[in-house]
Amino acid sequence: xxxxxxxxxxxxxxxxxxxxxxxxxxxxxxxxxxxxxxxxxxxxxxxxxxxxxxxxxxxxxxxxxxxxxxxxxxxxxxxxxxxxxxxxxxxxxxxxxxxxxxxxxxxxxxxxxxxxxxxxxxxxxxxxxxxxxxxxxxxxxxxxxxxxxxxxxxxxxxxxxxxxxxxxxxxxxxxxxxxxxxxxxxxxxxxxxxx
Length: 195
Fold this sequence. Notes:
single chain; alpha+beta; 7-stranded antiparallel β-sheet; two-stranded antiparallel sheet; Outer membrane protein beta-barrel domain-containing protein
């Protein structure tokens, strides 16, 4: 079964960056905090992202405004773990006429009566049966309240990156998330306004 729920999300955030150099090695630490509030959630979900990078920049002798920088680092991401909200049954199930609801209820009772083992029935009686009973009695205006305890599977991953600065205004940058289970690719073309 597939269900699509559309909702608006409001996001607010703030970011900080600290950068410097020790000899030929540059470093940067950036931290970004956002609060994302989908309209169907009770509270905003906080997200914290931190990046740490160490690298070296090679300046072309004949063109001091041109350089190539290479860096390595780490990327940390953490989200708020508890999410709760509510939505109407007719918004969660694609069929507003009750056909899909009846199909779910019938499939559950068929499984329960014909296939479920005794240990499965004990657990189902505590968790699933009350939900299915309410679903069977519900009309499309019934409200489903839900809660999730979620975590990022792996908070840290490694990154490598490079930047080519063609002149003081134009730069091309790429960065790859390469270690860990969270892979990422960043490609950007940047223009610097010189005042």
